[in-house]
Sequence to fold (82 residues):
Amino acid sequence: MFFDRDGVLTEPVWNPATGQHESPHAVDDLRLCPDVAGPLRQLRERGFELYIVSNQPSYAKGKGRSRRSRRSPRQSRSDFGT
Fold:
């Protein structure tokens, strides 16, 4: 199963520079949406492979550098409690 990261699995972050909620630009800003970890864990326990994708719209608009958003799979699994 594929899941979009920003706004589906993680909370948007307030960006004071743009005055808008956007995808997180820093790892420390990543916050799971409420009640996400449990269902993801249940899907994995039932044998589903989970994939997290992100189109990173703020990077496409030149609001950040994409190198900051890269995470290893182990770090992502830890972040999502799976």
Notes: The CA atoms of residues 14 and 21 lie 4 Å apart. The longest strand covers residues 2-4. The first helix runs from residue 37 to 45. The chain has one domain: 2-79.
